[in-house]
Amino acid sequence: MFKFKTIQSKLFLSYSLLIIVVILVFVSSFYVYISKILENKASESLYQVSSHITAEFDSQLQFMNSTSQKLLFSKPLNRLFFSDMFQLNKSTIDQQRQFNDILYSIIGLNKEFSQINMFQKSGEFANIGDNSVFSIISPEQIAKIQWIQNAFSNHGTKLISLHKQDVWNLKTPTVISLSRAFSPSWGEIETSILEIQQDYHVFSNIIKSALVKPDSQAGQEITVYVFNKNGDLIYPMETTQTAQLYWESILTHTNTSNFIIKNANTQSQDMISYKYSDFSEWTVIAAESKNLLLKPVTTFRNVILVFGLIAILITLLISYMVSKTLTTPIKKIHRSIRSLSLTSLSPTLSQPIESQSHLNELEQLNYSFLDMRLRLQESLQEAIASRAHELEARMFALQAQMNPHFLYNTITNVSIMAEENGQQSIVEVCENLSAMLRYISSEHAAPVKFREELEHTRSYLNLMRLRYEDDIVVHIDVSDSLLDLDVPKLMLQPIVENCMKYAIHIDPPWIITIVGRTLPGGWELTIRDNGQGFDADAIVHLQEQFEKTDPLVRIPNLKINGMGLLNIYSRLTLLFGDLLRFTLSNHPEGGAVVTISIKH
Predict the structure, then answer these.
(1) Which of 153, 459, 582, 596 registers the highest number of CB atoms within 10 A of its CB?
(2) Where found in the cell (predicted)?
(3) What distance in Å separates the CA atoms of residue 376 and residue 30, rounded to the nearest whole number?
C-alpha cells in the first residue's frame, strides 16, 4: 500500500509536481512561439509561391502577346494574309510558302507555341502548328464561337481565354489562347482574328515546379487555384467547393493578401495568400492547411508530454534508490548484468533461491535474475546438445547412403571397360556421373562459386541428353558477371532435375531454359520448362511453407531424389537473408518458372 508519509512518496510527489509544471510551461511556451513562427513563414512562403506563379504566367503570356504584335506589324505577312492565297490552287502555293517563311522568321523555328491561327470573318483560315494548313471554313461556324465575338468587341486589345478543347478540331488538348482582332489597314473595322495558343500543361507545369520542395515536411501540402477576373476557374480543371470558397474569401479580403479562413468543407483552418496580375487579370491563390502545418509541432508537444510522464515514473525509481536498504540489491543486479556472458551464465548463490521469501522486492528480483541465468544456461545446453545430435545423425545417414570412394572406383572400372569396347556414350555417362559425385560428396558445406554449380548442372544435363538425345533441348544464357558469385551448393541442379521430372509428361521436345542476368543492385536467375507447369494449389502451399520456414531453427530434410524446393529456399535464406526473392509461377505459354533474385 502506498504511504504518503514515507520518504519515497514525498520525493515522488515533489519531483512529479516539479516536472509537470516545468513540462507544461515549456510545452505551452514552445508551442505558441513555434506556431507563430511557422505561421509567419508559411504566409511568406505562400505569398512567394503565388507571386512566382503569377510572374511566370505573365512572362509566358507577355511573350505570346509580343509575338502577336510582331506578327500584326509585319506588312508582308499582312499583305499575303489578305491576298488570294486561300484559293488553294497551284498559283497560290508560292504565296503560302512565303507566308510560312515570313511567319517563322518572326517566331523562330523552335516552335515556342502550340498553335497559331489567323482567320477572317469570311472564312479564310491559316493554321500554323505541326503542319501549316490553309483552308476556308464556314463564316456561320465562326459567328457561333463566343470568344471570337468577344475578341472583336475588344477592338484589337488582347483577349486571354481558356479553351478546354480546340474549337477548330485540329487537336484535342486544353489550351490557353491569346487573341486580338485586326483589320487589313490601321483605322479600319477589324475583320480578322490572330490567335496564339499554348498547351495548358505548360502553365500547369509552372505551378507544379513552384510547389516542388525537397525539404518540406511530410504531410504538408500547398494547393494552388487560378481564377480569371470573372471568377472562372483556370487551374485546376475540376471545380470544387473549396475553390469556390477561396474565391469568395478573397473578394472579402481585398485589403490584405494573407489571411486565415475556416474551411467548412474540411473542418480545418486554411492559410491563404493570393496575387492579382494586371496584365492577365488572373488571380493566383496559394493555400495550406494550418492543421497540417502545425502537425510537427503538435507531435513534438505530445512527445514532450509522453516524456514527461516517463520522467514522473523515473522519479519513483529515484525516490526508492535514495533509500539505503535498497541500494545493495540494485548493485547486485548491476554486477550480475555486467558479468553476464555465455561462459558465466551459472551464478554462485550464497543461499538457495527457494528460501528468499523473507527478502524485499528488489532482493527477490535479484535472485529471480540469478534463477533466470541458471535456467537460461540449462536451455542453452539442451539446445546445443540437441543440434549436435541432429547434425551427427544426418552425417551418419549420409555416410550410410553411399561410399564415394567405392563408387568412384566402380564408375572408373565401368568407364575403362566401355572405352575398351568402343562404347563412347557409356564413357561420357561415367565421366559426367563421376563429376557429379565428386561435386556432391565434397566434405565442406560452404558456398561455392556459381560457375561450379552451373558446371555440375551441365554434367547432369549431359547425362539427360545421352538418355533422351534430341528430345531434350537446353538453352543456357548466364552473364559472365554471375559466375563468381557465392551460392549454396546444389541450388540449381535440383531445380533442373524437377524440370526433367515433370516436363517429360508432354510430347517432346522438352525445353529447359536457364537465364541469369545482373540487375541494378543485384542479380536474377530464372529456370523454366515447357511442361504442364505447377498446380495452382501446389504454388499456394509452397509459398505458405516458405513463409513458415525458419532455417535458423530447422532446415527441411534431404530427399532421396534431390534437394526439395523448400530446402533450397532455406539455404538461400541463410546465405542472403531478406535480400532473397524466391518465386514460383507458370509461364503464359506453358511450363513452370522458378525465379531466384537478389536485390540490395
Answers:
(1) 596
(2) Cell membrane
(3) 48
Report the SS3 class of residue 525: strand
Helix or strand run (H / E) with residue 69: helix 7-73
| 508 Cβ contact partners less than 8 Å away, ≥ 6 residues apart | 468, 470, 471, 472
H or E element: which one contains 599? strand 592-599
Cis peptide bond prior to 509, omega within 30° of 0: yes
3-state secondary structure of 596: strand
SS3 of residue 275 by DSSP: strand
3-state class (DSSP) for residue 222: strand
Alpha-carbon gap, residue 530 to 508, rounded angstroms: 10
- In angstroms, the CA 103 to CA 85 distance is 15
Quick: pLDDT tens for 164-218.
665 665 555 788 999 999 998 877 899 999 999 888 899 999 998 888 765 544 4
Global pTM? Answer: 0.49
Cα–Cα dist 436/70, whole Å: 83
Name, of 63-77, 86-100, 201-215, the range with top average pLDDT. 63-77
Listed in sequence order, the residues at least 6 apart from 599 whose beta carbon sits closer than 8 Å to its beta carbon are: 519, 521, 522, 579, 581
Residue 344 DSSP class = G
For cell 508519509, what's the residue?
Answer: 5
> What sign results for the dihedral spanned by CA atoms 153, 74, 165, 200?
negative
Q: Which residue has the cell 477548330?
A: 168
d(CA 217, CA 295): 9
DSSP result, 151-209: HHHTTTS-EEEEESS-TTSS--S-EEEEEEEE-SSTTSPP-EEEEEEEEHHHHHHHHHH
Task: Give the separation between CA 441 and CA 456, rounded to whole angstroms.
Answer: 12
